[in-house]
Structure formats: structure tokens, C-alpha cells
Design a protein that fits this description.
The complex is a heterodimer of chains A (about 190) and B (about 180).
Chain A: H1 2-14, H2 25-30, H3 35-64, H4 72-94, H5 96-102, H6 113-124, H7 129-159, H8 169-184
Helix pairs in contact in A: 1-7, 3-4, 3-6, 3-7, 4-5, 4-6, 6-7, 7-8
Chain B: H1 2-25, H2 32-40, H3 54-62, H4 75-86, E1 104-108, H5 118-122, E2 128-129, E3 137-138, E4 158-162, H6 175-182
Antiparallel strand pairs in B: 1-4, 2-3
Helix pairs in contact in B: 2-3
The chains are: A mainly alpha (about 190), B mainly alpha (about 180).
Chain lengths: ~190, ~180
């Protein structure tokens, strides 16, 4: 039980997928201009990542096995693409506003390297099914948390008096770097 | 080798059937015709057609409740497009809904404006900025030239200024115009 909690805390804070592992930077930069969009993106990614890491585990364990392990990457991509399509349909049905806000970034979850990275890390670290699910969910929660924090900071930056050469993406990059340094403070909390 | 092919095709087949089911289960109701008609309409939201805006007019056309010749801002070019889309005969603009005018933008004479906000409430596209007892002004890039703000102004400080044709907004005329001009 304790190990499961450690996985969750570890992936959310210590090995944060964005700020420590530097994965999934495309939506991190792209969808962090507005707080609502960031929250929606975080929720959609959490759904896809949790489902994706669970089903990837099942596929690599029961469908592929050791003989067909060379199919790991391609089958993960196929499964993730399928789940993203499914999520897109559900979001379009449930919340047309969110669908409009997320726009192109919703199908782009497919190419979010965090979404492929976490199942591959699961495989590398020999997680079991529950651990895989938790690792996926923790990674996604960490991703959403950082995305929402970053969007909050960027909304304030809009109103701030930033020197001209730093305006726009450059100050966002600097901010991301500072956040990443802050998250280094968590290292050593969980091994 | 055969295993790999079987596994991948099985996976693809399974995902395909799940997605196929989901697309039926989560099908979004939407009238494609309304979307197409709405895309043709000029989106001035001027309500000269007798409907509250372009979208309701598009819905009315799609349901056959309205004719295609009730949109003065769109002019004859739009009626041609609608006639092509719906496969009906072209008809000239219905004069009781107004005459087509050159594209113009509202202009607020700022020295006369008393800051009553009535025009802000009338504007369908939020193209007027201002606050109570503060001077108002038109956001030219948002204004659709619908003239809805002209009537409510108690001091008549809003005028419609035609937009001069220049290199950045000049467009090819529809061939039908040229034929009519020649005739």
C-alpha cells in the first residue's frame, strides 16, 4: 500500500513529467495561455494517460509478451491514438465549449511525448498493473498541476510590465525554467 | 512474423470497432446544412432579415421558413451563393428588408457622446467600448456595419462611414454582376 502512495507522490512531485523529465512540453507551452483551457487539457490528458498506461500494460503483458516486444512502440502508439479519438468524441458530446477551447490540442494529445513516455517508463521499471495505472495517473496529475500553475503565472504575466525582448514565449521559457528549478527542491523526497 | 501481423491487425480491428461504436453512441446532433448556410451569411447580426441574427436566419432557411433574398448586407453575391447551395432559382433582394449599401463602419462623434451606454447594449458583436458617463468608441476591426447602434443614440452622435475601397479590401466582383452591368 505504501509503495503505491510513494509512486503517486513520486510521479507528481519528485519525477514530475514536465519539469523534471522534460516530457510533454508541446501542450505545456501551447495550452497554458488561458486557465480554463489548461484545466480542460489537464483533465483530458489525465483521462488519456491513465487509460493509456493501463491498456499499454495489458497489451505488452498479455498480447505481445517477450517474443513480440519489438512491436511495443507501434502498438502503444496505435492504442493511444485510439484512446485519444475516443476522448475527442466524448468531449465533443459532453462539452462542446471545451472542445472549441482545446481545438487542435485535443488530437495533439496523441503526439504528446508524455503520453507515450509513461507507458514506456512503466515497461522499463517493471511495474505491475496497479502500479502502471498509478504511475500514469500520477504523471498526468503532475502534468495537469504544472500546466495549471503555469497558466496562472502566464495570465498574470500578460498584465506585468515585461521588458520588450522578453515578451511572449521567451518569458514563458524563463518561467518554465524557474519552475523546473523549484521542483528540484522535491528531489530526494522519495527515492 | 505471422504472429506480429495477426496481433497488429487484431488490435486495429478491436480499436476500430470500439471507435465505430463510440461514433454512433456519442454522435453529435448538428445540421450540416445550417452550418453551410451560416458560413455564407455575412455575420453582421444586423437582424434586417427579420430574425435575431445570422444563425437563426440560417436555421429558418434550412427549414424552409424564410426565403434566401432577405439579407441586404450580403447583397446579390450572397443570394447567388445560397441559390447554388440550395439548388433554387436566384431571386433579387427583397426590398422590404432594406437595400444593399456599401460596406460601412459606425463612427462615434466623441465630442457629442454623453456616455449613456445605449449603443453598447444594442451592438450585437460587442464592437463598442466604453463605460457609463465615459466616452464610447467603435472598435473598427469588430464593427460589422449593421447600423443597430444608430437608432438608440439619444444625441445622434453615431454616423455610418463608408469604407473606401483600397488594395487591402478590394475583391473580384462576381461575374453575374458584370453581366448585369453590361445589360
Amino acid at each position: 500500500m505504501e509503495s503505491y502512495l510513494l509512486i503517486l507522490v513520486g510521479t507528481v512531485f519528485v519525477n514530475n513529467i514536465v519539469l523534471v523529465k522534460i516530457l510533454g512540453l508541446c501542450p505545456f507551452m501551447g495550452v497554458s495561455k488561458k486557465l480554463e483551457a489548461a484545466i480542460g487539457m489537464g483533465a483530458a490528458t489525465t483521462f488519456v494517460l491513465t487509460l493509456g498506461s493501463g491498456s499499454s500494460y495489458l497489451i505488452s503483458k498479455y498480447l505481445l509478451g517477450p517474443d513480440l516486444s519489438y512491436l511495443t512502440t507501434i502498438s502503444f502508439i496505435v492504442v493511444i491514438a485510439g484512446i485519444v479519438q475516443f476522448t475527442e468524441m466524448v468531449v465533443k458530446k459532453v462539452s462542446p465549449v471545451l472542445y472549441q477551447v482545446l481545438g487542435i490540442y485535443l488530437p495533439l494529445i496523441t503526439t504528446n511525448c508524455a503520453v507515450l513516455g509513461i507507458p514506456l517508463l512503466n515497461l522499463q521499471q517493471n511495474h505491475n498493473f496497479i502500479q502502471s495505472l498509478l504511475f500514469g495517473m500520477g504523471g498526468a496529475i503532475g502534468f495537469s498541476m504544472v500546466l495549471i500553475l503555469f497558466a496562472g503565472i502566464r495570465e498574470r504575466l500578460e498584465a506585468a510590465d515585461i521588458p520588450a525582448p522578453f515578451r511572449g514565449s521567451s518569458i514563458a521559457m524563463v518561467t518554465a525554467g524557474l519552475m523546473s528549478m523549484a521542483f528540484m527542491g522535491f528531489s530526494g523526497l522519495v527515492k | 512474423m505471422l504472429d506480429a501481423i495477426l496481433v497488429m491487425s487484431g488490435l486495429a480491428l478491436f480499436l476500430g470497432s470500439v471507435l465505430g461504436y463510440a461514433s454512433i453512441r456519442f454522435h453529435v446532433q448538428g445540421n450540416a446544412l445550417v452550418e453551410k448556410i451560416d458560413a455564407i451569411l455575412p455575420q453582421t447580426q444586423c437582424a434586417q432579415c427579420g430574425f435575431p441574427g445570422c444563425r437563426p436566419y440560417a436555421e429558418a432557411i434550412a427549414e424552409g421558413r424564410a426565403d434566401i433574398n432577405q439579407c441586404p448586407p450580403g447583397g446579390e453575391a450572397n443570394i447567388h451563393k445560397l441559390a447554388d447551395l440550395l439548388g433554387v432559382e436566384f431571386k433579387p433582394l427583397n426590398a422590404e428588408h432594406g437595400e444593399p449599401k456599401p460596406k460601412s463602419l459606425a463612427f462615434i462623434d466623441e465630442s457629442t457622446c454623453i456616455g449613456c451606454t445605449l449603443c453598447i447594449q444594442a451592438c450585437p458583436v460587442d464592437a463598442i467600448s466604453g463605460a457609463p458617463k465615459q466616452m464610447h468608441t467603435i472598435i473598427a476591426s469588430e464593427c460589422t456595419g449593421c447600423e443597430l447602434c444608430v437608432a438608440p443614440c439619444p444625441v445622434d452622435c453615431i454616423s455610418m462611414v463608408p469604407v473606401a475601397e483600397n488594395i487591402s479590401n478590394w475583391k473580384w466582383k462576381r461575374p453575374s454582376y458584370l453581366e448585369q452591368d453590361a445589360a
